[in-house]
Write a structure and sequence with these properties.
Oligomer: single chain
Number of domains: 3
Low-confidence stretches: none
Mean pLDDT: 84
Number of strands: 14
Helix content: 25-40%
Strand order of the largest sheet: 2-1-4-5-8-9-3-10
Structural class: alpha+beta
Largest sheet: 8 strands, antiparallel
Radius of gyration: 26 Å
Number of helices: 12
Shape: globular
Distance between the termini: 36 Å
């Protein structure tokens, strides 16, 4: 169970700086700070509020699996941080900052602060939080002694409300509910959470952060798995059914209906192949898509729901017509396909007529 971040108790913090990679260097370098910070209540509440917003229940964070738990990994340095003394805590955070610096091998990654937190959840179980926060500048308004407003520049701000400037990785120890769970390997007794603002419908989180730095795996996350399956299946249909556009439109509509069906709680790629893909394309679909998914998986459509809820016509030169996939849209958006329909059009009835050169890749579909 994911910790309740509003009840998180942050015990101590170290902050290190990871510089931008210089030209010719293999990776970034870290600048270390030996200070251990104990928070006042206002700062503590600000941090837990950020964590609850971006990593709590109903957030856009992801629960991932710990893939790298070997000596020298993030998990190695983080999982026994709670009992460490002050010197041991600082040393562990320095190793973690060094890991992040080594993971940043592209010059386009900006400099940042790495905030490493030693905390406990509401049950007293250890939680380790790493926030990679980019440094930004801002303006603040002050009133001087004469009562006159002034603007001043504030430099090196971090952890503001904008989600664009930080990434979060969290390790938390799970409660041991049964004797069997106590026999698990150490890394299996811990959960991992990732928040990365870069994750959108057509992208994936920055690999240097979740993979090379945190040592996590996205392979078994149901949100990401369904997004990948949907995108792979959609790409297959768009590339392999151009010789039969009617079959192509139907297959895409059926795929959308299958995934958005509220009565379906598990996605079965074999079922999709056998029931939604034209018979003469099933072998190729199996090779290109199904083989990448070993078995059915739990449906979590939060990353594709918005895309499926909207219907698109994509024309040449990246001209896109997008409408909500609702019955209301059906009465308000119409594609004119015949000369007779064109001749029956009447201006002045509250409609806008648009002429687009080229044929779309698919027709609009509705609920």
């Amino acid at each position: 169970m994911v910790p309740n971040f509003s009840q998180l108790s942050i015990k101590r913090i170290c902050i290190h700086t990871v510089h931008k990679k210089e030209s010719g260097a293999a990776s970034s370098v870290a600048e270390y700070d030996d200070a251990v910070i104990v928070l006042d209540s206002d700062v503590h509440d600000t941090i837990t509020d950020r964590l609850n917003t971006y990593c709590g229940e109903n957030s856009r964070s992801f629960e991932l699996e710990i893939a790298n738990f070997l000596e020298g990994s993030f998990f190695h340095w983080a999982h026994d941080m709670r009992p460490a003394d002050r010197e041991g805590f600082v040393e562990r955070t320095k190793h973690i900052a060094h890991l992040l610096a080594e993971s940043q091998t592209r010059g386009s990654i900006p400099a940042s602060c790495l905030v490493v937190m030693d905390a406990v959840d509401e049950h007293g179980l250890p939680v380790v939080v790493c926030i990679k926060a980019e440094l930004t500048d801002a303006l603040t308004r002050e009133i001087n002694e004469a009562g006159i407003s002034q603007l001043k520049k504030v430099e090196k701000l971090f952890m503001g409300k904008s989600e664009k400037f930080f990434k979060i990785g969290i390790l938390y120890q799970r409660p041991a509910a049964t004797a069997d769970e106590e026999e698990l390997l150490p890394h299996q007794q811990w959960g991992a959470i990732l928040y990365d603002h870069q994750f959108r419908n057509n992208t994936r989180p920055a690999e240097y952060f979740w993979n090379r730095f945190l040592g996590l795996s996205v392979d078994n996350n149901d949100k990401i798995k369904l997004k990948k399956f949907y995108q792979d299946a959609l790409t297959f249909l768009e590339e392999n059914l151009n010789d039969d556009l009617e079959a192509k439109y139907k297959a895409i509509a059926n795929l959308d209906s299958y995934i958005s069906n509220e009565n379906i709680t598990e996605i079965d790629p074999v079922h999709v192949m056998e029931n939604l893909i034209p018979a003469d394309k099933r072998y190729d679909f199996n090779e290109a898509v199904v083989m990448n998914f070993e078995r059915p998986f739990t449906k979590d459509d939060s990353l594709v729901k918005r895309k499926i809820a909207r219907s698109q016509m994509i024309f040449p030169d990246n001209i896109v017509l997008t409408v909500p996939k609702t019955s209301v849209s059906r009465t308000k958006v119409e594609v004119i396909e015949t000369t007779e329909d064109l001749n029956n059009l009447r201006l002045g009835e509250g409609y806008t007529i648009i002429r687009i050169k080229g044929n779309p890749d698919r027709l609009l579909s509705y609920e």
